[in-house]
Amino acid sequence: MMKSLWSGVSGLRVHQTGMDVEGNNIANVNTYGFKYSRVNYNTSFSQTMAIATGPVGNLGGQNAMQVGLGVSANSTMRVHSQGSITGTERNYDVAIEGAGYFLVSNNGGRTQYLTRDGSFNVDAAGNFVTTNGYVVQGWNMNPRTGEVDTSLPATNLQWDQDMTIPANPSSELWLNGTLNSGYQGLSANEVRSIYSLDSVHGFNAKTGVEANENNNATNQFYTTSDNALELTEKGVDMAGIFVNNGDNTYDSLNIREGQGFWVSFADATYSTGDTFGGVAAPVFDINNQQNQPGALYWGNIPGQPVTLDITINGVRIRNDQITSLDQAVQYINTFTSPTDTREGTGVRAVAKQDGSGIDFINTNNEGETDNMKNIRLTVNEANSAGERHRIEWDAAGQTFNVANITNDNGTGGTTNSNWIAGNEGAAGTGLTRTVQVITAHKYTYSSSAPALTEMYNPDSGIAFAGTSGGVLGNGTQVLDDPAEEAYRQALQGGLLNNQARVFRTTEDLRELLQRDARYGVDYDGSGINGTQNGFSIADVNQSVTVTVDEKGSFVLSNPDSASDIPAGVISNGAGAAPAVTDLPPISMSINISAFLDEANLISTNDALAGLFEGWSGSMTVGSNNKYSEEAKLANLGTNLTVIDSLGSSHQIHVEWTKISTTVDGGNEWQMVIRVEEPATINTTGVGPDNIIVGSIRFGSDGSLISYDPRTINFSANNGSAPNQQIRLNLGASGGYNGLVSNDQTSAVTGNYTDGYIAGTLLKGMDNTRIDQQGNIIASFSNGLSMVVGKIAMGTVVNDAGLEDIGGNMYKKTANSGEITVGVSGTGGRGNMRSASIEMSNADLSLSLTNLIVIQRGYQANSKTISTSDQMLNTLLQLKQ
Question: Do 684 and 667 touch, CB atoms closer than 8 A?
Answer without folding.
Answer: no
